[in-house]
Predict the structure.
Amino acid sequence: MNLGLFNKLMEASPLQTKDEWRIFLEICDSYLKEHKIKDPIVVELGIYEGKQKPFYEQLFGATYIGIDCYCHPNKRCKPEIYGFTSNPETLKKLKEKLAGRQINILFIDANHHYKNVKKDFEMYAPLCDDIVAFHDVNYPSILRFWDELKAKPSVSPTKEKEYLSPMWSSLSIAERGWVDKDNMFILIEIASGIGVMIKK
């Protein structure tokens, strides 16, 4: 990966911790090169200020599709698909944009409530062939789903269908930061964490 370009893009101050963001993108870069994937499709659920888009486009030459129902009013950003990620209409719009192609990198960073993260994963992960990532994996509700997913990666919690086969492996980047003490969550390190599911 072009670290000079990465550092230049970091000057825009994306909402990512620099080291974990670099590690995540290096993993993606290595995977794409190893599997000879050119013009990958990246779908990001939740774009906020839209500062991650240039990383995917400039480092990987990716076709980027951002999905969000909100963008920061003082920033210039516009999602490619405007809508709630949990809305079936939003998924329908994405499928139309994909036109039969599969997602190569799916980055889940929309609503951080447990049921919403779970639903985003169940709706969009079946469209991804390569890398599924969760941002803020240290956030308690996301960490709860992430731990469940790692424990049973091959069967959905509803047991209705398989959404990840044993062909997938998981890793956590900076999975630390929240601990449960007397039913209180305490921040012990400023590292939001990225959970990554990678097709073997």
Q: What stands out?
A: The mean pLDDT is 82. The two ends are 20 Å apart (CA to CA). The helical segments are 3-10, 18-34, 53-60, 88-98, 114-124, 140-151.
